Amino acid sequence: MSLDPVASLMLDEAGALDGRVLVVDDAGGALTRAAVAAGADVRTWCDDLREWQAVPETHRIEVLPPDWSPDLVLWRLPRAVAAVEDYAEHLATLLGPNARVVAGGRVKHMTPTQNAALARQFGQVSASLGRQKSRVLHAGDPRPRPRRWPQRRYVPEAGLTVIAHGAVFATNRLDAGTHLLLRTVARTTGGPGPGTASRGLAIDLGSGSGILATWLAQRGWTTRAIDVSASAVSSTLLTARANGVEVDARRGDGLHAVAPASVDLIVSNPPFHTGGAKDSTPALRMIEQAGRALRPGGELWLVFNAHLPYLPHLRRRVGVTTVEAQDRHYLVTRSVTEPA
Ligand SMILES: C[S@@+](CC[C@H](N)C(=O)[O-])C[C@H]1O[C@@H](n2cnc3c(N)ncnc32)[C@H](O)[C@@H]1O
User: Fold this and answer.
1) Measured from the CB, is residue 170 less than 6 Å from ligand 1?
2) CA-wise closest residue to 266 among 292, 231, 230
3) Of 142, 165, 191, which residue constitutes the final position of a domain?
4) Domains in the chain: how many in total?
5) Is residue 276 over pLDDT 80?
6) CA 299 to chain centre
7) 299 touches ligand 1 (CB under 6 Å)
8) How many Å lie between the centroid of ligand 1 and the Cα of residue 141?
9) Mean pLDDT, range 136-150, rounded to an integer
10) Measured in angstroms, how far is the CA atom of residue 234 from the centroid of ligand 1?
11) What value does the mean pLDDT take over residues 179-189?
């Protein structure tokens, strides 16, 4: 079994893998496989649907079974300190007094603030020696303190209360690209507010905290939000609820589950990373999928970094594409599919 350096160090640092093992965010499934091979009773939870689906069905969970408390948690650390805080708060409440956490990451993505985030929830926190540019944090003696996540913020530029978990893109803040997209869509498709008849089906693709979805729902769109992250879906639902609108938020990988020619409007600030690495592939796939999911005359609105080469793809895969706004960093495009 081939193990990446982080997984290999985590397993060496974890010691005997017996009893109940909870694996968290097991990119590639190596930790799950190793713990199963060692005879442990293994449950795996992943925030990202694609990682979760790569785990054997018999081991993956969406929520912990009520009568199942882990002895050991193997956790691939997220990079964002906010995400570490949020996960640590959650783990501290569900672990028994003797449970151990072994959390691993690449040294270049780790900071002492992650140790501090763990120390807020655990009485014992220590770091391993580094090996192959990887390091492990050990945490034990859970002492849950009041939860700080998800966090709420009023975002005046959007006129919305935004609630987000720590693992969500930009958490509860308004990203500059999203702000430009929102202002530009408002200029052209602002329109009526709550209580009016539906203007059609809109999708916020990669909804994060749900700012765009909630804004659309407030303006009379029947709104669906799709995100590959469980934290994002939960945050989108919290944000919609806090603003008194209904959004159908689902965990999904792009527009796979959306019927062809069924959607009137798609808005997105698409991902530009996969894991830690810059990657345009997911956004290009989303554009292709949007071309199929939109009805004739439907519109795709995107915001992206101005240097990214999406325009030819938008024209080929969706339809006539215009640049509706541009600043020093971002382009906002509107692509319209061929009318019937
Ligand atoms: C740049 S963030 C934008 C978030 C939010 N719309 C905003 O504007 O603040 C991109 C979002 O896309 C989600 N995402 C990444 N890959 C995805 C995929 N294949 N399908 C659905 N969502 C995806 C990420 O989890 C993230 O929440």
Assistant:
1) yes
2) 292
3) 142
4) 2
5) no
6) 24
7) no
8) 35
9) 97
10) 13
11) 93
